[in-house]
Amino acid sequence: MRHLLRRIGFYLVALWASITLNFLIPRLAPGDPASVLMARFQGKIQPEALHALQIEFGVTHEPLWTQYIQYLNQLIHGNLGLSITYFPQPVSAMIAQEIPWTIMLVGVSTIISFSLGTLLGMLIAWKRGSFFDTFFPPLLTFFSAIPYFWLALIALYVLGFMLNLFPVNGGYDLTVIPSWSLPFILSAIQHAILPAFTIVLSSIAGWMLGMRNMMVTTLSEDYVLLAEAKGLPTRRIMFSYAARNAILPSVTGFALSLGFVVGGALLTEIVFSYPGIGFALLQAVQNSDYALLQGIFLIIAIAVLGANFLADLLYFVLDPRVRQERN
Prior knowledge:
It is a multi-pass membrane protein. By secondary structure, this protein is mainly α. The protein has a domain at 101-276: Orthogonal Bundle (MetI-like fold). It has 15 helices and no strands. It is globular. It starts with a helix and ends with a helix.
């Protein structure tokens, strides 16, 4: 319990530091959202409107600590400001609109890639020197070595354009009204299969090789040899003794990957014209949309910290040595 409270305290401090940096960096940058928006009109709007826009965007000349308190108060109430890129849409509404697409596509793809890669790595290490060990690592490494942009374009051209097996763009059929209806869900799944396939194909090799190498090292440990000498079932040795310990280093990488899921997959969204938060982040950078940048970075920071906290809990469950050291 003491360890859990200590870790919660650490992540709360890290969250406060992330929020503080998220507040300071845009305010140290030159310009402000109102001036950026005024520049878009190229003199077609009266200069007197600048003050009104500054009020609308919350630009103030008050002391920095006063602005910081106001910023924290706005965060508590879920107010992330107005987006310049999608003006006058609030940042919170913009993120709420785009992030479900990203979580469903990139999140599910990451889980599938990690699960398949870990399972393949475990089986290949257990049967090292066999056909699986000589076939799968070179093949999957070849696909991961191809730049993702080209891999996605090849998959789009062959599977989408030539064979016409999947839609070539968008997140759903434009003839379907977005809702929780069965036609829309089926259309969204159909449009997500090809982008998800390319993400899994390009990332599975890393999980597989990492698990294989750790599994090979773990299989030479004394406790695994002792379990084999005692005549324990092969499946129990492979899963409970070898794989359970070999997977620990991959847990941290998987947690970080899940945390960065909310950052989107920019290349995927560009190639497949797929809706998501990655393209919104790119537009925010290009348009100096500080409010949208702050909102997205805050979501990423919270997701990464939350994923790492879950990884710590998982370590505590999987590794008895951690529990013994912390008691």
